[in-house]
Amino acid sequence: MIPVAARSTASAGAPFVATTIERRDLGPKDVLIDIAYAGICHSDIHTARGEWGHTLFPLTPGHEIAGVVSAVGSEVTKLAVGDRAGVGCMVDSCRECEPCLAGEEQYCVKGNIGTYNAIGKDGRPTEGGYSEKIVVDEDFALKIPEGISLDVAAPLLCAGITLYSPLHRWGAGPGKKVAIVGLGGLGHMGVKIAKAMGAEVSVLSQSLKKQEDGLRLGADAYYATGDEGTFETLAGTFDLIVSTVSATVDMGAYLGLLKLDGALVNVGAPEEPLAVPAFALIGGRRSLAGSMIGGIRETQEMLDFCAEHGIGAEVEVISADRIDEAYDRVVASDVRYRFVIDASTIAG
Fold this sequence. Notes:
Belongs to the zinc-containing alcohol dehydrogenase family. It comes from Motilibacter deserti. There is one protein chain. The chain is an alpha/beta fold. It has two domains: about 1-160 and about 315-345, Quinone Oxidoreductase, Chain A, domain 1 (Alpha-Beta Complex); about 160-290, NAD(P)-binding Rossmann-like Domain (Rossmann fold). The protein has eleven helices and 17 strands. The strands form four sheets. Strands 3, 4, 5, 8, 9, 16 and 17 form a seven-stranded mixed sheet that branches. Strands 12-11-10-13-14-15 form a six-stranded parallel sheet, with helices on one face. α4 (about 160-170) packs across α5 and α4 packs across α10 (about 295-310).
């Protein structure tokens, strides 16, 4: 086993402390990545605070990982020592079911194996990116192209692919009007990516307080959903709406913003069930859908696309001793737009 410095939490809501975890020795298909940066995703917070059910404590979160390959197994062909590499939300899957064979490992019938808070095929709990190194099968490692610095690349491994996947699948591009609901860690990536795809992009947010940011990031228009006239003014406007918010919203009102055959795709996950009025769907042959991350193939496609278009996340880099503070600030929506941990500070 390989001892690795990490930051872990011992129980729901407990502070993060410096500790040592163990990574497996390299197998023939494994790569060892020296982590440079690890993004903080809201999923990390929900898991670390026990808000999404069972958590395997002690927990080392982090599934937005960017670094450099420092060793490879004897059969590795995808990456070489010195390559820039990343790890996203999963580190394995069954590799046998229909989704896996189609390159959609995120929808593995048996359940993909998460980068943290999961049990790997070796029977040990997986440990995430709040650490100095990670060992991963080459099939679940990504190449980070030149042209994206590692700090702004890290959040692409979750936030970036979470928005790229639905935008790609539902055809965001020239001639399409796309709305992104919420301008946060996910939403700001949606604005950048949809604009680079060639779509006309609008932001729908509760207020106009982030309007200047939204327009700077590439939005063509910015609307406050708290204004009474917004939904009436924009009725029947959009081909695609991607909602990044985890709050319960008036689904009928948002569906009413879609054109004929438009789609509303949820990537946020509200705790309460969403009430969907049937006539808001059938009246315009509209679709309501959901999407999560992408498979490994699509994630690599996203990274290459972002490098080609000069896209990275908007980040605030922090030292590891500020993780608890960062969690509180994320919950308070006090970050623009993603915290990223400098892994050189993990050991303290």
